[in-house]
Q: What sequence folds into this?
């Protein structure tokens, strides 16, 4: 089974900062990775699919990159609404594996 | 706008059954696969089960195989999860999620708010 390891588990930052979250796969998953944002009490929202593709309506400050086993989500110019939990999802042919999540809070 | 509304959660004793429902709106339900995903504070998010647009393809996570059954009624824009022989480790917030494809294997672009299942005596 493919394992996805997400880091860090928590991250403190300030409005305007740039932050990076990483997901590592235990074996190559090509580009089959999505990134989600989840605010407390809300449904998850997809930000990025296929590693680097911005979902419609998502601000361009969210940038996904990587392929194979290492992937990153970079958020540039943090806005107050960005303080939330982020998680990655590996998807491919009946396989769905989530990262453990990263809670981004205000420093 | 995609809307998914789950219902049917609650407190249930170990070994008993529960049926979750998810009502969809805002998109053509029978064009897409749909899934159940659960979340716990300790284990995070875990995919539970998925069903293709026409119910021809079904799949389950190992921990629930043989106990849970996924189904859909396209005429009612609804997804279901029949959960039998429930265990304490099934305690979680259960989400309904919409696939971006008619078959299984793509990412999810819509989620509900979840329904809480608590398995305890």
A:
């Amino acid at each position: 089974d493919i394992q996805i390891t997400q880091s860090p588990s928590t991250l403190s930052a300030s409005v305007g900062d740039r932050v990076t979250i990483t997901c590592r796969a235990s074996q190559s998953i090509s580009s089959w990775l999505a990134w989600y944002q989840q605010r407390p009490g809300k449904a998850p929202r997809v930000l990025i699919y296929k590693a680097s593709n911005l979902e419609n309506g998502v601000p361009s400050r969210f940038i996904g990159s990587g392929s194979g086993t290492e992937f990153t989500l970079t958020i540039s110019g943090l806005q107050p609404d960005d303080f939330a939990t982020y998680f990655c999802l590996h998807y491919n042919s009946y396989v769905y594996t989530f990262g453990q999540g990263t809670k981004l809070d205000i420093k | 706008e995609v809307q998914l509304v789950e219902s049917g959660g609650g407190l249930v004793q170990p070994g008993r059954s529960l049926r979750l429902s998810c009502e969809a709106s805002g998109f053509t339900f029978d064009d897409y696969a749909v899934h159940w995903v659960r979340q716990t504070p300790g284990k995070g998010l875990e995919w539970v089960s998925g069903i293709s647009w026409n119910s021809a393809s079904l799949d389950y996570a190992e921990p629930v195989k043989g106990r849970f059954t996924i189904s859909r009624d396209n005429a009612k824009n609804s997804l279901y999860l029949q959960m039998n022989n429930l265990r304490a480790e099934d305690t979680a917030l259960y989400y309904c999620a919409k696939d971006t494809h008619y078959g299984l294997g793509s990412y999810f672009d819509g989620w509900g708010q979840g329904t809480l299942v608590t398995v305890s005596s």
